[in-house]
Specification:
Length: 269
């Protein structure tokens, strides 16, 4: 091989090595991005679209929402469900040992949950009404609570209910009794559309053959609380295109100005 050919060969080798290095860097960055996205969606924040009218008129069908998972982050609870595979079981057993507990659901929060009875739907959106240790009672279309450690029932004020739902919170006819003691680490949740919501009152589907504890949602089945409401816009619907310089929103975005939390000062008296 002549000396004149040597620089040409070395240059080719450097170009091949450079291309390979660039591919490795790209692959590394791609994997890191996937890990970051997985971490954010699993533990920090996740987008959802509402499917149904159970939270009318606070939230509407087809609205896009952003759910805050981080505020409820608790590795011991979040990783407590049975794993689908031995490998995932081993991974979750490690996660459970990490002492991270940011917070728990608060009465009045609008939350996304995993229903334990209805397997046809992956997630529900409901409002937390009863806390662990509370006794909840239904009477004459209203909801009363005896808070954990308290004495006597107090009828709660629910301004987020529409006129057609206010005073119309009833149990199904087949339910025996009208009050329930909420066990530890569980919650009583209901939709704001009390006349059209599958929630704790009917065990999220029906209570036949599922036991009395099916009324309650476990802490580990609470995914997160609603943070941002982006509304809903359908470009293919009538009025969906720009009209007079404005979008024809089906449901206008409210961002942070929505009924995602409620307070009950009457319970503090």
């Amino acid at each position: 091989m002549s000396q004149a050919e040597t620089p040409f060969i070395e240059t080719d080798l450097r170009e091949i090595n450079s291309t390979f290095s660039e591919f490795i860097i790209f692959l590394r960055d791609f994997v890191l991005i996937l890990i970051v996205v997985f971490f954010i969606r699993t533990f920090v924040i996740t987008p959802f679209q509402i499917n149904g009218a159970s939270m009318e008129a606070s939230y509407h069908d087809k609205e896009f929402i952003l759910v805050d998972k981080f505020s409820y982050l608790d590795f011991a609870q979040d990783m407590s469900d049975p794993a689908d595979s031995p490998i995932w079981a081993y991974i979750t057993s490690i996660w459970q040992k990490i002492p991270i507990h940011i917070g728990d659901p608060v009465r009045g929060d609008v939350v996304v949950i995993k229903p334990h009875v209805d397997k046809t739907r992956e997630h529900y959106i409901k409002r937390v009404i009863g806390m662990p240790g509370d006794i909840i009672r239904f009477e004459s279309g209203s909801v009363s609570l005896q808070v954990a450690g308290g004495t006597g029932f107090v009828t709660i004020h629910e301004p987020y209910l529409s006129a057609s739902n206010s005073g119309h919170t009833y149990l199904p006819d087949y339910i025996e009794g009208n009050q329930f003691l909420i066990p530890a680490d569980t919650y009583w949740v209901m939709g704001d559309n009390r006349q059209n919501s599958a929630d704790s009152r009917q065990c999220f589907q029906n209570c036949f053959g599922v036991g009395t504890n099916a009324h309650f949602i476990k802490r580990s089945n609470v995914i997160g609380r609603i943070l941002i409401d982006f509304g809903y816009f359908n470009i293919f619907s009538e009025g969906g295109l720009l009209s007079n310089g404005k979008f024809g929103w089906t449901h206008a975005p409210r961002f942070l100005s929505h009924a995602r939390q409620a307070t009950y000062p009457e319970l503090d008296k």
